[in-house]
Design brief:
115 residues, mainly beta
Length: 115
């Protein structure tokens, strides 16, 4: 079955960096666009970044443009999110997602940015 497992989260000071990884299995990873979402306590889950199946095109929420980079390794079946200059308000659970009629989600990885 489809499995998405995030890792790389943790505690970082404001202005710091983290790189999230999402290990994918159970499907042909290179055939799917992928997304990163985040959900802060008491808030909706928001789309952060997207990448096409071949990695040739990416999109970002306005709030992270210029600071976050989504990428993928279609040999290792891993999705990445490099996050730089992190802000306290970006404290959230970060999820990777395979979109579609039956979307698949990882369990989420906590990112905490201290001020």
């Amino acid at each position: 079955q489809v499995q998405l497992v995030e890792s790389g989260g943790g505690l970082v000071q404001a202005g710091g960096s983290l790189r999230l990884s999402c290990a994918a299995s159970g499907f042909t990873f290179k055939r799917y666009a992928m997304h990163w979402y985040r959900q802060a306590p008491g808030k909706e889950r928001d789309l952060v970044a997207s990448i096409k199946d071949d990695g040739g095109s990416t999109n970002y929420a306005d709030s992270v443009k210029g600071r976050f980079t989504i990428s993928r390794d279609n040999v290792k079946n891993i999705l990445y999110l490099q996050m730089n200059r992190l802000k306290p308000e970006e404290t959230a659970l970060y999820y990777c997602c395979r979109p579609g009629t039956s979307a698949s989600w990882g369990q989420g990885d906590q990112v905490t940015v201290s001020s």
